[in-house]
Amino acid sequence: MAELSVKHLLGIKYLNESDIQLIFETADHFKEVINRSIKKVPSLRDITIANIFFENSTRTKLSFELAEKRLSADVINFSAGQSSVKKGETLIDTVNNILSMKVDMVVMRHPNPGAGIFLSKYVNASIVNAGDGAHEHPTQALLDSYSIREKLGSVPGKNVVIVGDILHSRVALSNIFALKLQGANVKVCGPKTLLPKHIESLGVEVETDLRKALNWCDVANMLRIQNERLDISYFPTTREYTQQFGVSKKLLDSLDKEIVIMHPGPINRGVEITSDVADSKQSIILNQVENGVAIRMAVIYLLASKIK
Ligand code: CP
Question: How many folded domains does the chain comprise?
Fold first, then answer.
């Protein structure tokens, strides 16, 4: 059986192109499973997974939990806000206590970049990064590319623009790694203050004119401003940001071609995209969420096969 080149999913940076294709092919199978009347398979009956979230989440947390349950794994959930982390327990102590209850895999979201990488060096379980600060969000990038593949037939050669707060976005970095690995062309677009210096070294182009970027692309992945990570003001006002970098239906309809609109969520309606864009037929935002379950089933299944 084909297997992943990694024991953990810490970031797209650590995957190769074959890993991505294997995850997609496995997700194709699971997507069919979750659309059947019986949506569950017994594959991981002997595996226990802990979802430990030190940061808020709606989509990722629910999607991982559903993916694990669809695979028949035993699942425990941990939210830092209601835990003994509040009493001063360290990350390693917390996780080792969870692991002593015979847990095989840890899915972790953490506000600190590199938290999963750190943990993987100290604990004996498979670690899945569910978002680590402004660093990486690998399953989001996988489900994004999978959704492009589903909508447009393939990813290689497609033009994708990522719009918004690139500087503070783990979704942007993981998407850049994933898209470049598959041979897509990538541009980033946003206020200069929200574009990392030397971003071109990742093989992407910078475009600060939104209309030009949209007329170039097949797909626009719209990001929200990561207000929780902004220590200073990076643009004058939200209204001015929206005027320059927000996508309205009027702008979408005035483009030379019909493009696909994506968003990882949560959306700030009326800021980066208007409601009529989010809900338009060009938007695949809810398809991304649906695909997230199949992608996470694939990732967990493939990593679990390396534990046994
Ligand atoms: N896309 C994403 O990570 O959303 P959540 O923060 O709700 O998990």
Answer: 2
pLDDT at 308: 60
The answer to whether 229 and 134 have CB atoms below 8 angstroms apart is yes
* Same-domain status, 94 and 220: no
Is there an atom of ligand 1 within 6 Å of 57 CB?
A: yes
Those residues whose C-beta lies under 8 Å from the C-beta of residue 255, and which sit 6 or more positions away, are: 211, 214, 215
**Which tens digit of pLDDT belongs to each residue from 187-215?**
999 999 999 999 999 999 999 999 999 99
pLDDT (tens digit per residue) in 208-246: 999 999 999 999 999 998 777 777 778 878 999 999 999
Instruction: Tell me, in angstroms, the distance from the centre of ligand 1 to residue 272's CA.
Output: 16
- Structure token pair of residue 283: 């938007």
The CATH number of the domain holding residue 225 is 3.40.50.1370
Say yes or no: 49 and 124 in one domain: yes
Mean pLDDT of 49-77: 97
Decide: 261 and 273 in contact? Cβ < 8 Å: yes
Structural domain includes residue 260: yes
Ligand 1, pocket-test mutation among 53, 55, 59, 136, most atoms within 8 A of CB = 59
